[in-house]
């Protein structure tokens, strides 16, 4: 069963949490009737939205009803950055968040989006299921957050309202909306574009009004938010892969007690569904886009794009966590 919560209800509840003394880390059995909240920013019909509802259903089933998950999607509880702040204070219990916003907590996370690092989600998951994933768990726990799984935010592509983009030079001079993700900004700057950070909930209107010329997202997001209505040119750049980190607050972890393992298992199962739906949705959406006379889908010269953005990886290896960036790159190529 799925439970929905609105922003007013969330703020009223969270004010009580914030006023309470710090929670002890001692693990106790979850009390009957434990209610927790999951926030995310995806639109209805998006694989993330479907998987979040499935997570709530699985938790109820695996805990015999002892734990209830209220789901708040479509940025009901604020944007990704706001939800991460709430997560760290314990006002929010779970979030299926964006890689870009989450990299403000763990900057190394952005390295998963090195240009043309992963050709598909399966390869990325292979890396995250190994030592790289284990290292990320340690780095997240250091900032008060528990990674439960790595959901898929897809291979990302470029859309715009100006022209067909087939080569890197076609991007030069454009104004492109990116999330607040330093890796994505670096990629488009390397391509000669100006970048603008606009909340995803405001993106359709920004494109419609010409505030920016284009944007980049996985096909599922382009479809569910109907961005193709205001950006008719879709270029299959495949310039990067992104995760959707599925995160839990350490406060929630302490509250769950003996039900913690059941919740972790539910997160993994929901993640498998989300990745499956994401892959299916991409194939379905691409076919629909190709069959829509109002949309122009362009295959690009990916080798040329990879060459034009090669400097980004070298720049990131010079950062304080450059050794870890190199480890991620090596694991991806292995």
TrEMBL record:
- Compartments where located: Cell envelope
Per the UniProt entry, the signal peptide is 1-19
Annotated GO biological processes are:
transmembrane transport
Q: Which keywords are on file for this protein? A: Receptor, Signal, Transport
Q: Which PANTHER family match?
A: PTHR33376, SIALIC ACID-BINDING PERIPLASMIC PROTEIN SIAP
Similarity comment: family membership = Belongs to the bacterial solute-binding protein 7 family.
Q: What is this protein called?
A: Tripartite ATP-independent transporter solute receptor, DctP family
Say which species the protein is native to.
Answer: Rhizobium mongolense subsp. loessense
Q: What is the lineage of its organism?
A: Bacteria, Pseudomonadati, Pseudomonadota, Alphaproteobacteria, Hyphomicrobiales
């Amino acid at each position: 069963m799925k439970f929905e919560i609105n922003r007013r209800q969330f703020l009223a509840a969270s004010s009580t949490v914030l006023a309470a003394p710090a929670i002890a880390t001692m693990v106790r059995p979850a009390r009957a009737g434990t209610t927790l909240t999951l926030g995310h920013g995806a639109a209805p019909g998006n694989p993330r939205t479907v998987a979040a509802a499935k997570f709530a259903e699985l938790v109820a089933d695996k805990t015999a009803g002892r734990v209830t998950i209220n789901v708040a999607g479509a940025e009901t509880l604020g944007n990704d950055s706001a939800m991460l702040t709430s997560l760290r204070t314990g006002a929010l219990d779970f979030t299926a968040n964006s890689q870009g916003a989450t990299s403000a907590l763990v900057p190394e996370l952005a390295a998963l989006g090195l240009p043309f690092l992963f050709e598909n989600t399966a390869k990325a998951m292979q890396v995250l299921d190994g030592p790289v994933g284990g290292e990320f768990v340690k780095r997240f726990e250091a900032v008060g957050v528990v990674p439960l799984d790595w959901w898929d935010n897809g291979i990302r592509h470029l859309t715009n309202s100006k022209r067909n983009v087939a080569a890197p030079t076609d991007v030069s001079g454009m104004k492109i909306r990116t999330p607040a993700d330093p890796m994505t900004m670096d990629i488009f700057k390397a391509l000669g574009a100006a970048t603008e950070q606009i909340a995803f909930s405001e993106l359709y209107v920004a494109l419609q009004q010409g505030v920016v010329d284009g944007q980049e997202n996985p096909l599922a997001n382009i479809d569910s938010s109907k961005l193709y209505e205001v950006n008719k040119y879709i270029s299959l750049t495949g310039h990067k892969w992104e995760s959707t980190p599925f995160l839990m607050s350490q406060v929630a972890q302490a509250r769950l007690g003996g039900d913690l393992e059941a919740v972790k298992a539910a997160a993994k199962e929901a993640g498998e569904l989300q990745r499956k739906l994401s892959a299916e949705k991409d194939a379905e959406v691409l076919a629909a886009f190709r069959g829509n006379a109002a949309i122009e889908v362009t295959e690009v010269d990916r080798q040329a794009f990879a060459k034009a953005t090669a400097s980004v990886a070298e720049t990131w290896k010079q950062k304080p966590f450059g050794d870890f960036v190199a480890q991620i790159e090596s694991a991806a190529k292995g």
